[in-house]
């Protein structure tokens, strides 16, 4: 194991600034109330600026009598706790990419206003890089969830800051909807060797569940002909109930599914290639489920609850699928042409 080499360049009150020659970085260290903390920076200037600011904050806290009242935690610590306590498989890729960005551009960032500022810089940088708004929103959601848990569950911060991070509505929303016949064709195209994966794909069609939610299903999630998702199994952090059709009931026997998310994706991609629809994504099955319900006249409020949407604004994209809805609206208009003509 290679020994760490560092050269101390100075200190600001209780904070020491030193260089790590093996990595070419600068480290700020401090011990307060027996607790040692450190943060890493790319340049000496950034390290010294942080040390000065941190020492000023320490003195202010001490003056106001709040020193040691609430320990400060880093975003990295928040991510680690979130991953260990919650099912985050549906966010796995975004969590890794956000962690990588923060490590490079805001190492050791503290949960609070400092994290908010870093998240906004990340938002701007990703937009300048040309990423789709939906992708940027998924990255921001990772930060929002850490902030939310830090306030509501872990008591790490005193204010609910997650609401201060905006997620603009994406202008690149996908509108890929398959008919019942096309869904059946896609299912039939799944190679025979993917028996378990075929069940997962069919259940996605019949429930509108996300792939991460499907892969996290356990026997305890099935009750009285329904799938009951716990708060730690949903993207919104809220429980959700999805009724099962007769066709779906046999699919949930023997949970959990003996497969992986990668195998399900592989089976799905082979099926879409066979039917000549490389544009279809697994998540589109969720949209198809909602669109089919709307086409059968189901209320948007019911579809919202089944999908677990936070508001009707998100669900309203499926309103187009129910033409009868508009027919019933215009049927309420008066028959103007048949009114008794005014005589003169």
From TrEMBL:
Which CDD domains does UniProt cross-reference here?
INT_Rci_Hp1_C (cd00796)
Q: Where is the Tyr recombinase domain?
A: 173-331
Q: Which SUPFAM superfamilies match?
A: DNA breaking-rejoining enzymes
Alphabetic keyword roster: DNA integration, DNA recombination
User: What Pfam families would the database entry show?
Assistant: Phage_integrase (PF00589)
Q: Which PANTHER family match?
A: PHAGE INTEGRASE-RELATED (PTHR30349), PROPHAGE INTEGRASE INTD-RELATED (PTHR30349:SF64)
Which protein is depicted? Tyr recombinase domain-containing protein
């Amino acid at each position: 194991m290679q020994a760490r080499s560092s050269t101390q360049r100075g200190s600001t009150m209780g904070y020491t600034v030193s260089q790590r020659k093996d990595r070419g970085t600068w480290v700020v260290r401090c011990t307060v109330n027996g607790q040692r903390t450190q943060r890493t920076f790319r340049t000496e200037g950034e390290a010294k600026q942080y040390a000065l600011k941190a020492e000023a904050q320490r003195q202010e806290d001490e003056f106001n009598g709040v020193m040691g009242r609430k320990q400060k935690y880093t975003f990295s610590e928040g991510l680690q706790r979130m991953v260990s306590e919650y099912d985050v498989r549906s966010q796995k890729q975004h969590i890794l990419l956000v962690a990588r960005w923060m490590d490079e551009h805001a190492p050791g960032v503290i949960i609070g206003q400092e994290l908010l500022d870093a998240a906004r810089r990340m938002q701007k940088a990703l937009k300048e890089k040309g990423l789709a708004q939906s992708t940027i929103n998924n990255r921001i959601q990772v930060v929002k969830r850490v902030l939310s848990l830090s306030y509501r569950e872990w008591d790490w911060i005193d204010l609910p800051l997650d609401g201060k991070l905006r997620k603009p509505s994406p202008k690149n929303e996908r509108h890929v909807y398959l008919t019942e016949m096309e869904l059946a064709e896609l299912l039939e195209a799944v190679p025979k060797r993917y028996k378990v994966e075929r069940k997962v794909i069919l259940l996605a069609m019949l429930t509108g569940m996300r792939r991460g939610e499907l892969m996290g299903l356990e026997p305890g999630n099935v009750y009285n002909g329904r799938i009951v998702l716990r708060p730690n199994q949903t993207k919104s952090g809220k429980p959700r109930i999805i009724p099962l059709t007769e066709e779906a009931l046999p699919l949930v026997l023997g949970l959990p599914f003996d497969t992986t998310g990668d195998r399900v994706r592989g089976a799905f991609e082979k099926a879409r290639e066979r039917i000549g629809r490389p544009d279809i994504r697994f998540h589109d099955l969720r949209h198809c489920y909602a669109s089919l319900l709307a086409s059968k006249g189901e209320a948007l409020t019911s579809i919202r609850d089944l999908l677990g949407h936070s508001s009707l604004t998100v669900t309203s994209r499926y309103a187009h699928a129910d033409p009868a809805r508009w027919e019933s609206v215009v049927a309420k208009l008066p028959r103007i042409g048949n009114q008794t003509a005014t005589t003169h």
